[in-house]
Automatic annotation (TrEMBL):
Ranges of residues in domain Fe2OG dioxygenase: 281-394
Protein name: Fe2OG dioxygenase domain-containing protein
Family of the protein in this entry: Belongs to the iron/ascorbate-dependent oxidoreductase family.
Annotated transmembrane regions: none
Stored Pfam families: 2OG-FeII_Oxy
Swiss-Prot/TrEMBL keywords: Iron, Metal-binding, Oxidoreductase
MF annotations from Gene Ontology: metal ion binding; oxidoreductase activity
Length: 439
């Protein structure tokens, strides 16, 4: 957990010095974490060399005494420039094959060999306790390639050929429905707003309204129905896209329920543990279209962030993960360096959101990720990129607190209970504040 030991290091341009038991001390600037390009060793050396005061604060923190909050330290003005950023790397995530697990219904899953299930559950737990991401294969019996292809095709036609006027018929409030370029600066949700808003267009389908757009609650009485199907913003979409999104929603929801059973087993809980929380789940399907071109100086396709909810089911185009190709990158939380994540055909990427990290008492990790701009003139910059992002989450108004599992150290919960709605709203407010001060 990050701890602030001393705020307002204004002499160095940093706002906070932070110390973590795992990664050592470092600095946050007003807009982004400069520590992310520094190795823990370099940070440690720089910090200690730069400020005797900070050293005292760190010692106080280690000894359990409160920080003095005094400052600024003149020595910090002389901080040497950080070392150059580490080159981006390509990282391979654990690949998990769920074909046997998803093949039948709950009864078939219950009859699978316990040893085999335990080993699958262990892989699942290890992926999310480690990097916080995995690549999923063998899911097609629930989310068939045809549902993916139909939605990719209809969404590509929408984003690439419809006029702004047609798109804006589905615009609501910049949160649900259509989002134009310039409406999101997602890095503001982690206090690292970029100078220029993200170069992305979006189409968000959600089962819930929110206070922010004046309509709260589950939109459908029947949880098997697609809750947003009759909403005016969905009705305003080309019919082929509305239907393709509805088919994808149903299939991805079915996959989510089975992955929740696997998650429960992985955390040492009854397979059905998550059922009541997900009867009217707080899911959002986000279609994200990143137009061609490198963007402006300082502009990303989608800035660094963690997802807000349970786990995310991400369907990406096939991409190599190389530097400058404008695809997904994840951050190594120990060093802050970024690595591209290749995407192979018939593979989904699954990652943990904040709420699930909190629900597991931080056993599972919500890892920062981003989509940088492609290099100017590259083949990647010549094409648009489409992702189908299904954010899964429990009923937005059901409080979640540390899961009753020894694996989550439930005797020592780190956080009070919270609802999905509160968590998401806190992030949105942070984003608004960050966007106002930052970008
Ligand atoms: O487009 C991608 O690969 C990632 C999108 C993403 O991280 C998100 O929508 O939260
Ligand atoms: Fe994300």
């Amino acid at each position: 957990m990050w701890r602030t030991v001393w705020g307002n290091l204004s002499a160095s341009g940093a706002r906070e010095a932070i110390v973590t038991p795992e990664y050592g001390p470092g600095y946050f600037t007003g807009q982004s974490c400069v520590t992310k390009e520094w190795s823990p060793e370099a940070l440690w050396a720089q910090t200690l060399a730069a400020s005797a005061h900070l050293r005292e604060e760190f010692a106080a923190w280690e000894a359990g005494r409160p920080p003095t909050g005094q400052g600024p330290s003149p020595a910090l003005a002389d901080l040497p420039a950080p070392p150059p950023p580490l080159p981006a790397r390509v990282c391979t995530l654990p690949t998990i094959d769920v074909s046997r697990f998803v093949a039948g219904g709950a009864a078939e899953r219950a009859s699978l060999a316990e040893e085999w299930k335990a080993s699958l559950a262990e892989e699942w737990d290890a992926a999310f306790s480690g990097v916080g991401f995995c690549q999923l294969v063998g899911y097609e019996s629930l989310l068939p390639a045809s549902a993916i292809a139909a939605l990719r095709e209809a969404a590509t036609v929408f984003f690439e050929t419809e006029s702004r006027e047609v798109k804006m018929r589905s615009h609501i409030d910049g949160l649900l429905g259509y989002l134009a370029i310039g409406e999101e600066n997602v890095a503001a949700t982690v206090g690292a707003a970029n100078r220029v808003a993200d170069k992305v267009e979006g189409l968000n389908f959600s089962g819930y309204g929110s206070e922010l757009n004046g309509s709260r609650g589950w939109r459908s009485r029947d949880p098997c129905e697609v809750p947003w199907l009759e909403e005016p913003f969905a009705r305003a979409l080309p019919e082929r896209l509305r239907q393709a999104a509805a088919e994808y929603w149903k299939a991805a929801t079915a996959l989510m329920h089975v992955l929740l059973e696997l998650s429960a087993l992985a955390l040492g809980l009854e397979a059905s543990h998550f059922g009541p929380y997900y009867a009217e789940p707080g899911c959002t399907l986000r279609l994200a279209y990143y137009p061609p071109g490198p963007g402006e100086e300082g502009q990303l396709r989608y800035g660094e962030h963690t997802d807000y909810e349970g786990f995310t089911i991400l369907q990406r185009p096939v991409e190599g993960g190389g530097e400058g190709n404008g695809g997904l990158e994840v951050q190594d939380p120990r060093t802050g360096s970024w690595a591209g994540v290749p995407s192979l055909p018939d593979t989904l990427t699954i990652n943990i959101g904040d709420l699930m990290a909190r629900w597991t008492n931080d056993r599972w990790r919500a890892t920062r990720h981003r989509v940088p701009a492609p290099t100017a003139g590259s083949a990647a910059a010549a094409c648009g990129r489409l992702s189908l992002v299904y954010f899964t989450g429990p009923n937005p108004s059901m409080p979640v607190h540390c899961l009753p599992s020894a694996k989550c150290d439930c005797e020592n919960p780190k956080y009070p209970s919270i609802t999905l709605e509160e968590n998401v709203q806190a992030k949105l407010l942070a984003a608004q504040r960050g966007a106002a001060d930052g970008a």
